Amino acid sequence: VQLVQSGAEVKMPGSSVKVSCRASGVTFNSYTISWVRQAPGQGLEWIGRIIPAFGTANYAQKFNDRVSITADESSSTAYMELSSLRSEDTAIYYCAPGAYGQSKYWGPGTRVTVSS
Amino acid sequence: DIVMTQSPDSLAVSLGERATINCKSSQSLLQSSNNKNYLAWYQQKPGQTPKLLIYWASTRESGVPDRFIGGGSGTDFTLTISSLQAEDVAVYYCQQYFRTGTFGQGTKLEIK
After folding, report:
1. What's the half-sphere exposure (Cβ side, CA atoms, 13 Å) at A45?
2. Cα(B98)–Cα(A49) distance, rounded to whole angstroms?
3. Could you tell me if B21 and B9 are in contact, meaning their C-beta atoms sit under 8 angstroms apart?
4. In which element (H, E) is residue B72 found?
5. DSSP line for chain A
6. Low-confidence ranges of chain B (pLDDT < 70)
7. What is the mean pLDDT of residues A15-43?
8. A49 contacts in B (CB within 8 Å)?
9. Predicted confidence band at A101 (pLDDT cuts at 50, 70, 90)?
């Protein structure tokens, strides 16, 4: 299984970021794709997940109004877009597929820095 | 969202001794239709991505040593390392995937 995430981003406060995660070696539609972030020196924080086979996503309440998770089955790629960025959103963002919502596989992470 | 609370925040155990980490959820994670607890445990070593150890509260992921034991049901769960090895030094997280996917705050495990 290989997960390739998009490259590091530096964003201004108030802007948006879209992180991608392309999967290979795994049946994309068979999995739930979760997105998890980790701020510097902090713990894991669950953002949301999507089941590509159904196209349905659900989100942590904390992010519900400013996150969108989508998936493109044709390219086995999932996307996480976070808007209204603030400094507290500086973190490494991981895609993490798994069978039922647990995360068997983890991408390498995408570093997002929010700074003016 | 379901709140997950781990205890202790940090733990120091001697090599070869038992280490136990607790995880409590604010709601039951037991799905009555399939009798499964939607609880997973992860290990994260410094500079590495997390690794899935246990899912369904007690099912060991393939390749995980049998000294890692998951237990509990409903709202109270434990991760036990039966005989601590040096390579087990890490931060351990529980996660519920019953509704959304909340993580506990993590427990840092060190060698005494």
Report:
1. 18
2. 12
3. no
4. strand B68-73
5. -EEEEPPPEEE-TT--EEEEEEEESS-GGGSEEEEEEE-TT--EEEEEEEETTTTEEEE-GGGTTTEEEEEEGGGTEEEEEE-S--GGG-EEEEEEEESSSS-S-----EEEEE--
6. none
7. 93
8. 100-101
9. confident
The CA–CA distances, whole Å, from A82 to A13, A37, A70 equal 12, 12, 12
Are B93 and B50 spatial neighbours (Cβ–Cβ below 8 Å)?
Answer: yes
Nearest to A103 among B52, B105, B106 (CB): B52
Q: How far apart are CA A28 and CA B92, in angstroms?
A: 27
Q: Is A27 in contact with B69 (CB distance < 8 Å)? A: no
Contact residues on chain A for B103, CB-CB shorter than 8 A: 36, 43-46
Considering only CA atoms, which of A112, A100, A108 is closest in space to residue A33? A100
